[in-house]
Amino acid sequence: MKRPAAPRRLHIDWTRCDGRGLCTELLPGVFDRDDWGYPLARDGSREPVIPRGDLAEARMAVNRCPRLALSLTTRS
C-alpha cells in the first residue's frame, strides 16, 4: 500500500531574508507581511504547510527569491 506524500513546508532562512515580499505576493493564502515587509505565516507556524494547490507558486517563490532565503521541505 502506497503511503501518502508528506506535506510540503516552506522554510525561510532568516539570515538571508531581507523582506522584499515576493513570497507574500506569490503565496497570499500562506503569507501575510509584517510592517517591514517580512513574511508572516498566516497559520502562525515557523514553516507553514503549503496547500497542494499552491505548490507550483511555492516552487516559483523558491526559485525567484532574490536572496535565496526559501526552500521546500517535507519535515513534519
From TrEMBL:
This is Ferredoxin. It comes from Mycolicibacterium chlorophenolicum. The lineage of its organism: Bacteria, Bacillati, Actinomycetota, Actinomycetes, Mycobacteriales. SUPFAM superfamilies: 4Fe-4S ferredoxins.
